[in-house]
Amino acid sequence: MSRNRRLNCIIPxxxxxxxxxxxxxxxxxxxxxxxxxxxxxxxxxxxxASVIGATAGNGRRTVFDCRHGRFLPSAELARSEDGPxxxxxxxxxxxxxxxTTRDFFRGVLQRNSLDDRGMRLDGYVHFDTHYNNAFWDGxxxxxxxGDGRLFTDFTGSLDVIAHELTHxxxxxxAGLEYHNQSGALNESMSDxxxxxxxxxxxxxxVETADWLIGAEVFTPEVDADALRSMKAPGQAYNNALFGKDxxxxxxxxxxxxPDSERGDYGGVHINSGIxxxxxxxxAARIGGFAWGAPGVIWYESLKASEADTRFQxxxxxxxxxxxxLYGGGSAEQLAVLSAWQEVGIRISGVPTGIxxxxxxxxxxxxxAGREDGLAALSKQIGALSAQVRxxxxxxxxLRGKKLPSRVDAGRASDGR
Length: 416
What we know:
CATH superfamily of the largest domain: Neutral Protease Domain 2
Helix content: 40-55%
Largest sheet: 6 strands, mixed
CATH class of the largest domain: Mainly Alpha
Strand order of the largest sheet: 1-5-6-4-2-3
Number of strands: 10
CATH topology of the largest domain: Neutral Protease, domain 2
Strand content: 5-15%
CATH architecture of the largest domain: Orthogonal Bundle
Shape: globular
Number of helices: 12
Structural class: alpha+beta
Number of domains: 2
């Protein structure tokens, strides 16, 4: 199976492996069952990916009920695009989440479903028993109900639904390989558009959004904000059950992990904190609605990426796309530049002397307006120009002075 065709699960393996250390037998068993079910599904994913392609259907939705089974072909039809609402709230939440994600990509980014060709959107609810995960398998979306102790029904989180479906968008665009930096970018793209779908549906601005991923998946028994925080990677949770959120927010803390299942394929759910933080910072500096300029820049950059794109490559692409879309030296481009620099990535070809990382004037809650960005740019360039003029004048003055010749210097030493 190719690296970009692995199962994309919302609960990272490091959390489930940590739960295997719990003193609570039920917690350990639920974690083990979830890991085993996911491992079995990876084999099925490999077979399906080799024989089944995307099905066109203008983004039509269908939701099936697995009735706690694990064999998807035996699932019952629960709700279709033209059918009535179900009496099962999990079915309705999945159905609505598929629509909201589809409508976001169509209305905001002019994309016709995940493959841009009207791919059908199929969802499966009540998968397995006490299954602590939700995932995109390359063709459909599968939801577990959670164990009821730590995790709740995964259909209850819109950003989780949008996160998983965005893996489909990534697969049909850049096809980012699911390991190491390209895999972390893959996960970050899903977090970015997962939160944008939620923010768009709630009409939230950059300032009012919580920037959390999966805040609804935990039961009240769990002391945790969410699975991840894009605004503050590494601070989503810190408890005895899950340990400390391991996401870094800067390249100096990049986690070098094994490219294996236990190592999260090089830390794809962990190192995604770095580009996540960069997107948040860019959006905060631009201000307004994050699905506007920031979302468009990231989407166009995703489409321009390749399977092995790394952080540096993607950062450079976002900088170029910001210029193409909004102009060189625009507030949008400066916000992108500053954001990447703050997480330890310098845009290629941009001299450090005019880095602008902290030159943007900030309005109130953190949004940088176009006038402020251009004013900051003009101010820094003006200061650099003044320094160059002073240096030039000093050199000219030195050249204008008559320097003593060797003969004159010799005469002076002889006292003549």
